[in-house]
Amino acid sequence: MASPVPVKEKKLMDMKLGELPGWILMRDFTPRGIAGAFQRGYYPYYNKYVNVKKGNVAGISMVLAAYVLFNYCRCYKELKHERLCKYH
To answer: Could you state one GO cellular component term attached to this entry (predicted)?
Structure first.
């Protein structure tokens, strides 16, 4: 029988819904921990989409789409206000 994996070491996709709050509380939210999380996500993304022999614009376009979506969500309140004004 396999030994159970501690909740802290499980990946997000391996979590059950009931374990999720405890898993989130165990994460490291210091600046160093957040930088480490971005670094752990950056290298697999870079090696899969950017650093390939027959590359295309898919890797860069995903980053651009995420940037556009982030800025739209950030400015949604102002955009909604402008849309609802009669004269702007």
So the answer is: mitochondrial inner membrane
